[in-house]
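Researcher: Let's do a round of design. I'm pasting the structure tokens now; please hold your answer until I've finished.
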């Protein structure tokens, strides 16, 4: 009568068999190919809805950096661009940034999201609320940004933003100070 194989002996037999090597090779090959064909995508850190965030700093007239290092682009606005990459600053760019800084820096804000969560630069797209004030709309109303309504987001918000732009233009605020207003 033969004795049963010990666990160690079973492992040595299995590990040394050609079938085991073939199976291991096949598993490693499938994993490697799947990682190559479908690389893991790690989106930027996503703020959780219905949570308040502290604004660390204002980057420009339409982008802020949160304390958790998330960059947030305000949906529906297009503030003048600051000097960058050898291009001169657009008119009202510094005023737009300064106004947003006075409103939001070191403040706690609430974010709400819409259809698209990220822009082409992997910034989180959001409506930013300071208390009950929708900052996106207020930037436009103060004349520090145009309403940017060509991208997909809420039709209700698009109407609000267009109306805020009409009011800023009628009052000749900010970027509209020298623009004629046609109704």
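Researcher: That's everything. Go ahead.
Model: Designed sequence:
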């Amino acid at each position: 009568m033969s004795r049963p194989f010990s666990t160690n002996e079973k492992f040595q037999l299995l590990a040394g068999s050609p079938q085991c090597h073939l199976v291991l090779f096949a598993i490693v090959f499938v994993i490697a190919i799947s990682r190559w064909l479908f690389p893991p995508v790690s989106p930027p850190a996503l703020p959780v809805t219905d949570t308040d965030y502290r604004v660390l700093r204002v980057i420009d007239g339409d982008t802020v950096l949160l304390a958790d290092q998330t960059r947030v682009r305000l949906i529906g606005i297009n503030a003048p661009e600051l000097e960058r990459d050898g291009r001169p600053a657009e008119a009202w760019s510094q005023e737009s940034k300064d106004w947003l800084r006075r409103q939001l820096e070191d403040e706690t804000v609430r974010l709400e999201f819409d259809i698209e969560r990220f822009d082409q630069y992997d910034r989180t797209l959001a409506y930013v609320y300071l208390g009950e004030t929708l900052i996106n709309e207020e930037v436009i109303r103060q004349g520090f940004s145009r309403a940017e309504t060509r991208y997909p987001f809420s039709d209700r918000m698009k109407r609000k933003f267009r109306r805020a732009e009409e009011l800023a233009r009628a009052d000749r605020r900010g970027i509209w100070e020298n623009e004629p207003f046609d109704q």
